[in-house]
Design a protein that fits this description.
By secondary structure, this protein is an alpha+beta fold. The chain is about 20% helix and about 40% strand. The strands form 2 sheets. Strands 5, 6, 7, 8, 9, 10 and 11 form a 7-stranded mixed β-sheet that branches. A hairpin with a 2-residue loop joins β3 and β4. The radius of gyration is 19 Å and the shape is globular.
Amino acid sequence: MQNTFPSRSPELHVSGEYDWTCEVIEGFAAEDSGLYNCWMEGGNWKTISSERHFGNRNLEVVTNRVRTPGHPDPRAWTIVHRKPAVVIAAMTDDGKIVLIRQERIPIEQAIWEMPSGQIDDRNSDPENIKDVALRELREETGYELAQSGELVSLGHFFSSPGFTDERGYFFLARPVRPCPEGPDREEGESILDCRGFTSEEIREMIADNEIRDANTLGICATLAARGLLSLAVQ
């Protein structure tokens, strides 16, 4: 089954940096700000009011009073609006999956992950999103699609819908090969290692809690469900 992107996506409307003031408005703070333009799909959802607490080029924090299909009386909910992201499973011609080991300041740990990155362009369409995925792959791992390679869309997921609307797009890049020029990492990134792992090694790392990044666990589950990665015990 071919995956398609929605023609209107909340996660694609992101741009710029703003100096926020905390205010209560009628309507949707994120939409009014111009930085985020999120929409709710399905059912009778209505945002009654919104109070903006903080915002920068990467996220916005608001408290919304929302009427939902299951609760006609509005409820207050604090929400973190974040840019969408891409998550890439890079598979070599011998079937290994390329992972990076990256320092993550919020958890004060270095963990194994699939390469990933945020989508900055508020007007991104499916082709632009694919370009972002290939760029992040090159920058973080130093790998690129081989001449006969393909980038397969695997749908999307919500990273933590209890507090954020962040959406990640899954991709499988296969086969990949090392770039002649190597990785081109951003100054703020701290990637300590990058190498390929067999499916059996991936399975053992998940079982032993060595892989504990939600993006990576989610895309591994998707790959396994589609028969693209075997996580069965040998």
